[in-house]
Write a structure and sequence with these properties.
414 residues, alpha+beta, 14 strands
């Protein structure tokens, strides 16, 4: 497989190498940064990851074990063998200044899992990766399949909205959700790296537990809480807190956030005014990372766009045909033929991986003719437009799309 634009061509081997390198680097970094891991277990994991890295690099491209460990603190692109384009891996760190695995590294890993799983279903990569390695993508497909199983559009919408609007919460509240039992099983105990002395904080945008670190490089150690999803943290879901002398609840202090945009982007811009309060981890659960990242996170702009268009009087259907695609927007006279806009909303950190996914599927599997990305992914539009044009799809940011269809409907977006 190659992508349809010469400047972004990726062979199947390159896709596989990028996946193996990212997967090995992420697993190794997690082993290095997990405090509770036994030294022997840490060493075994690092050696396994080093072996995976050597397999990805191939003969004639050695990488000493010590060099491998040092490279994990640097640029992810530096681990790729010569001849494999770094593309959008340039500048991506695996471990950040706080000694934690970065959000971008997790995203790149999950997104490549999704690409490879799709390619394998299309018989493009038989035997390249195992089911266990692609478990995050398989979990997401399992959840969707279980929600669709009853064949009821209303039931499907309600379950999908629950996964978006309540990705974490008290066990008693989660038990009230009308989710199939196997979908409910994707709620697990709050992860240790989102907990400080038994307390956790929900992101004010997505409501999932934020990442907690203690920064010890200052004169006085200070705690930091920020959303695991970097764009949410950049929008204001980033806080500091003083370390309590006892086991009382920490209080968050907001870090500076960017000014709210004007014009069309203001319509979908999330509110980040509420400072999250500490909650006890005991008695609470949260969705697994893969379900949260590729159901909850992209679901927020899906619901926001749906609601804003409906408020303006447009006819909008959410997840039509049990999720053939995300939105069906119909514009035209009350009586007479309407123009349909079939929309798939994607939120990928890696534009290259998303472009390859579109190419592998030869467009959109459900028949969408528009690919829409959140406003903070605006830089991805030129690359994605070049790929999607081959399959008669158009690309826009959510605000661009909202403004365009409102103009065609004769109503104001802003």
């Amino acid at each position: 497989m190659t992508s349809p634009t010469d400047e972004n061509t990726q062979t199947l081997d390159e896709v596989r190498v990028r996946y193996l390198v990212t997967r090995a680097a992420l697993r190794a970094a997690k082993a290095m940064t997990t405090p509770a891991l036994e030294p022997q277990q840490r060493l075994v994991t690092l050696m396994e990851c080093h072996g995976t890295m050597l397999a990805a690099r191939g003969p004639g491209r050695p990488l000493a074990f010590g060099e491998f460990r040092r490279a994990l603190r640097g640029d992810l692109a530096d681990l790729l063998p010569e001849g494999v384009s770094s593309l959008d891996l340039e500048g991506i760190l695996v471990v950040d200044q706080d000694g934690q695995v970065t959000e971008d590294a997790f995203d790149f890993d999950l997104e490549q899992q999704m690409l490879l799983h799709t390619m394998r279903k299309l018989d493009a990569i038989a035997g390249v990766v195992s089911d266990r390695e692609l478990q995050s993508e398989i979990d997401q497909e399992t959840a969707y399949a279980l929600l669709r199983k009853q064949g009821d559009q209303v039931v499907y919408e309600a379950g999908r909205k629950d996964l978006i609007r309540l990705p974490a919460g008290p066990v008693d509240d989660l038990c009230e959700l009308k989710l199939p039992p196997l979908v409910a099983d994707f709620y697990r105990d709050i992860s240790y790296d989102s907990v400080y002395r038994g307390w956790w904080f929900p992101c004010p945008i997505c409501r999932w537990p934020m990442r907690i670190v203690v920064r010890k490089n200052a004169v006085t150690p200070v705690g930091a809480a920020r959303c695991w999803y970097a764009p949410h943290a950049d929008l204001g879901a980033s806080y500091l807190f003083r370390l309590p002398a006892d086991f009382s609840a920490p209080e968050l202090l907001p870090e500076p956030s960017p000014p709210r945009p004007d014009g069309r982007e203001a319509v979908l811009y999330p509110e980040v005014r509420e400072v999250p309060q500490a909650l006890l981890a005991e008695g609470h659960k949260a969705l697994t990372r893969g379900i949260w990242r590729y159901t909850t996170v992209p679901g927020l702009p899906e619901l926001a766009l749906y609601e804003r268009l409906a408020e303006r009087g447009l006819k909008v259907t959410l997840w039509p045909g049990l999720d053939a695609y995300d939105l069906l927007v119909e514009v035209g006279p009350k009586r007479g033929k309407k123009t349909p806009f079939k929309v798939d909303i994607k939120d990928y950190t890696s534009a290259v991986t998303l472009a390859n996914l579109v190419h592998a599927q030869e467009g959109d599997r459900g028949g969408a003719d528009w690919l829409v990305v959140p406003d903070y992914r605006a830089r991805q539009v030129p690359l994605l437009s070049g790929v999607c044009a081959k399959y008669n799809m158009q690309v826009a940011t959510a605000s661009e799309f909202g403004e365009m269809v409102c103009e065609k409907a004769g109503v104001s977006w802003t």
